[in-house]
C-alpha cells in the first residue's frame, strides 16, 4: 500500500531566483495525484525535491514520520527505497537491452540471484505490456515503449510511491491514452501513491483523484479532482479548461494592460466534468470516489452535462463506488 507524503512550507530557489514558495499539500496514501502548471514553474524540481535529489531552502517533507529534507547518508538512501521514478525521457541506458535496463536496480540494490532477478523483470515487463521485447535496445523501439520500459524499471523494487515526470511528452494522443490507462490499472493493482507531472489537460481531467496547480511561484490550489474542475478561481479555471481569458499569458503572467483589455469579457462556461477513467476491467480502485460525490457533499452544482453517463436516481452521481 502507498504511503502519505505531507509537504509543509516548502520553498526552493536557485541563487536569487525563487522557484516556488511556501508549498503545502498532502498526497494521500494510495491515490493518484496530478501536478500541473505553466512551463517553467518548477514541477520537475518539485519531484526531485520530494525524492531528496534537491534540497529546499525551507520546509519539510514527511514520509512515515521522517523528514526527507533533514535526512542524510544511509537514512536518506533507505527512505528512497520507497520511491520509483519514471523520468521524462525514460532515462534508459542506450547500450543495454530492455531486460538489463529493467534489471539494473535489482542488481545494484539487492542481492537477489539472477534467477530471481529474471522472474521479477519478466513480471514487471508483462505488467506494462512489454513481454517479448526483452532483448531489444532502447534505440530499436518507439517512444511509448521506452516510457513503458522506464515504468517497468521504476516498479522492480515494488515502490510505495511512484513519481512520474511528463509521461505524455513526445507521445501521440493514442499512446497517451494507453499509458494513462496503464497508470490507473497499476494503481488498482499495487495501491501505490502516484504523483504525475503533466501538461496534458485530458490526463488531468480524467485520471487523478487529486489535482494541484503551481503558478506564479506558489501552489494555487490542491485538492480532489472535482473541486478543481468546478472551481471559479481564475488561474485554475483558465488552465484546466485551456482558455485564453484569465491571468495566464504567453509569458506566464499577463500584464496590467492585457488584463484591463479583458475586463468585462464574459468568461466561457465551464465544460462538463467527465467521468474518471475506470480500470480496464472496471474493478473499483480503493481510492476511487463516486462521480459527483465531492460536488454533492460540498454543495457545489457541477457544470451542466457533467457525469453524463450516470444512471437515473441521484442527478450527477454514478451509482456504485463511493456513491
Automatic annotation (TrEMBL):
Record domain ABC transporter: where: 5-241
Superkingdom of the organism of origin: Bacteria
N-terminal signal peptide: none
Pfam families, sorted: ABC_tran
UniProt key word tRNA-binding: no
Keyword Thylakoid applies: no
UniProt keyword list: ATP-binding, Nucleotide-binding, Transport
InterPro entries: AAA+_ATPase, ABC_transporter-like_ATP-bd, ABC_transporter-like_CS, P-loop_NTPase
Gene3D superfamilies xrefs: P-loop containing nucleotide triphosphate hydrolases
Region (Disordered): 254-323
Any GO MF annotation of the entry: ATP hydrolysis activity
PANTHER family reported in the protein's UniProt record: INTERMEMBRANE PHOSPHOLIPID TRANSPORT SYSTEM ATP-BINDING PROTEIN MLAF, PROTEIN TRIGALACTOSYLDIACYLGLYCEROL 3, CHLOROPLASTIC
Name this protein carries in UniProt: Phospholipid/cholesterol/gamma-HCH transport system ATP-binding protein
UniProt organism field: Phycicoccus duodecadis
The organism's taxonomic lineage, starting at the top: Bacteria, Bacillati, Actinomycetota, Actinomycetes, Micrococcales
Amino acid at each position: 500500500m502507498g504511503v502519505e507524503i505531507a509537504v509543509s512550507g516548502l520553498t526552493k530557489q536557485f541563487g536569487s531566483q525563487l522557484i516556488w514558495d511556501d508549498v503545502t499539500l498532502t498526497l494521500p496514501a494510495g491515490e493518484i495525484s496530478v501536478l500541473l502548471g505553466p512551463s517553467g514553474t518548477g514541477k520537475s524540481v518539485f519531484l526531485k525535491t520530494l525524492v531528496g535529489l534537491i534540497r529546499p531552502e525551507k520546509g519539510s517533507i514527511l514520509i512515515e514520520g521522517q523528514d526527507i529534507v533533514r535526512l542524510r547518508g544511509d537514512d536518506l538512501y533507505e527512505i528512497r527505497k520507497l520511491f520509483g521514478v519514471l523520468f521524462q525521457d525514460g532515462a534508459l541506458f542506450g547500450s543495454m537491452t530492455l531486460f538489463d535496463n529493467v534489471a539494473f536496480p535489482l542488481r545494484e540494490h539487492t542481492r537477489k540471484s539472477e534467477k530471481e532477478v529474471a522472474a521479477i523483470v519478466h513480471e514487471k515487463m508483462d505488467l506494462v505490456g512489454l513481454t517479448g521485447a526483452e532483448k531489444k535496445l532502447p534505440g530499436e523501439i518507439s517512444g511509448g515503449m521506452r516510457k513503458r520500459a522506464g515504468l517497468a524499471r521504476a516498479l522492480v523494487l515494488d515502490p510505495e510511491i511512484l513519481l512520474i515526470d511528463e509521461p505524455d511528452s513526445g507521445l501521440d494522443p493514442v499512446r497517451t491514452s494507453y499509458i494513462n490507462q496503464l497508470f490507473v490499472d497499476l494503481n488498482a493493482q499495487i495501491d501505490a501513491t502516484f504523483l504525475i507531472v503533466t501538461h496534458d489537460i485530458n490526463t488531468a481531467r480524467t485520471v487523478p483523484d487529486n489535482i494541484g496547480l503551481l503558478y506564479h511561484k506558489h501552489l494555487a490550489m490542491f485538492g480532489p479532482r472535482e473541486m478543481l474542475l468546478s472551481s471559479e478561481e481564475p488561474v485554475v479555471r483558465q488552465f484546466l479548461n485551456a482558455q485564453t481569458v484569465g491571468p495566464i499569458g504567453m509569458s506566464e503572467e499577463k500584464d496590467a494592460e492585457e488584463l484591463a483589455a479583458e475586463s468585462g469579457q464574459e468568461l466561457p462556461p465551464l465544460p462538463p466534468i467527465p467521468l474518471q477513467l475506470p480500470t480496464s476491467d472496471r474493478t473499483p480502485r480503493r481510492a476511487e470516489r463516486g462521480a459527483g460525490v465531492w460536488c454533492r457533499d460540498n454543495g457545489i452544482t457541477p457544470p451542466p452535462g457533467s457525469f453524463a453517463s450516470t444512471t437515473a436516481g441521484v442527478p450527477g452521481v454514478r451509482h456504485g463506488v463511493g456513491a
